[in-house]
Amino acid sequence: MNFSVLQFPASNCDQDAVYAVRLLGHSARLVWHKDASLGDTDAVIVPGGFSYGDYLRCGAIARFSPVMQAVKQFADQGGLVLGVCNGFQVLTEAGLLPGALIRNRDLQFHCEFIHLKTVTADSPFTSRIPAAKALRVPIAHGEGCYFADEATLAQLQAGNQILWQYCDAGGNVTDAANPNGALQNIAGICNERRNVAGLMPHPERACESLLGSDDGRWVFESMLAALKEPALAASH
Amino acid sequence: MKAKIIITPKKAVLDPQGKTVQNALAQMGYTGVTGVHIGKYIEIDLAPGTDPAAAHKALNEAAHRLLSNPVIEDYRLEIE
Fold first, then answer.
1. Are A96 and A75 spatial neighbours (Cβ–Cβ below 8 Å)?
2. Alpha carbon distance A118, B47 (integer Å)
3. I want to staple A125 with a disulfide (CB 3.0 to 4.6 A). Which of A2, A197, B10, B26 is the partner?
4. Among A69, A103, A108, which would you mutate to test the B interface (most chain B Cβ atoms within 10 Å of its Cβ)?
5. Where do runs of H (alpha helix) occur along A109-177?
6. How many CA atoms lie within 13 Å of A100's alpha carbon, on the beta-carbon side?
7. Do A100 and B71 touch (CB under 8 A)?
8. Residue A102: its chain B contacts at CB < 8 A?
């Protein structure tokens, strides 16, 4: 499979994402933010970083880059798009995912390992994650507090669009396990069609045990499984 | 000619900066402060002779699309 990993000025997890995809035996290439086309691609990763210096708001300027028009088209056609950290912020700013990411409630930048509960296996991003397994993956953000108004939250729940919640090592979703104040401990969501997802934690930084955890692989394994069985990805 | 855009967090949105400043003010002895909300101020220079009505319309659109995020922020636009 061919993954496209976007590269904005000040992206800094782009190489990690490329590395993770190649580690799983697939090909990944970087796509510059000024490119108006993605080329031949099976899936897109919008990586973490501080695109455009996080000026104005995180992701606010990146969303207007030429490549994001191509990503929007790709998503409209049902293509798989995963946004990680700043990539999640970019996708919310672009309107491809609902809600917004705001300043962590304690105003601090959090760089640490956390645990994730996978809320549903019913998505191309979670289908291969072992049930009841709390994924151990790192976070590194200052503005990762997920916010959406009540109506949007209700829609997310009704549509089973909340994919991951922060939890403790035992899988319990508690306030103490919430690193940033995100509503309902939300760490990651998908769109209604289930082909676009975003999360604040970094699965691409947890793809081999040398890095402290390889739990992040399951996210990419799920995407690869969906790509191999297009019916899975397009079932919604 | 200038446009001024004042952006504030929506009431329902957590504003930890505002809360922290409010606590600091209380500790300093400034009583009677019941809320602090921290936003942004953007000043835009407009070419002389710009039609205020047209500028208002264009900047309203810009404020909605780029300068503010309607999910979490409100804005006020003034042209003078």
1. yes
2. 53
3. A197
4. A103
5. 150-158
6. 20
7. yes
8. 9, 13-14, 72
Into how many domains does chain A fold?
1
The low-confidence residues of chain A, meaning pLDDT below 70, are 230-236
Q: Which residue of B69, B73, B75 is the best one to mutate when testing the A interface, meaning the one whose CB has the most A CBs within 10 A?
A: B69
Q: How many domains does chain B have?
A: 1
C-beta atoms surrounding A210 within 10 Å: 7
d(CA A32, CA A6): 6
The domain in which residue B58 lies consists of 2-79
Mean pLDDT for back-to-back runs of 10 residues, chain B (80 residues): 96 92 96 94 96 96 96 96
Q: Which two tokens stand for residue A159?
A: 């549509």
Q: What is the pLDDT of residue A229?
A: 85
The amino acid that residue B69 corresponds to is N
pTM of the predicted model as reported, rounded to 2 decimal places? 0.94
Q: pLDDT (tens digit, 9 = 90+) per residue, A81-113?
A: 999 999 999 999 999 999 999 999 999 999 999
A147 in B contact zone (CB under 8 Å): yes
What string of DSSP letters covers chain A?
-EEEEEE-TTB-SHHHHHHHHHHTT-EEEEEETT-S---S-SEEEE--B-GGGG-SSTTTTGGGSHHHHHHHHHHHTT-EEEEETHHHHHHHHTTSSSSEEE--TTS--EEEEEEEEE--S-STTTTTSPTT--EEEEEEESS-EEE--HHHHHHHHHTT-EEEEEE-TTS---STT-SS--GGGEEEEE-TTSSEEEESS-GGG-SBGGGTB-TTHHHHHHHHHHHHSHHHHT--
Bridge partners, A122 (sequence order): none
Q: Which residue has the tokens 């659109």?
A: B61
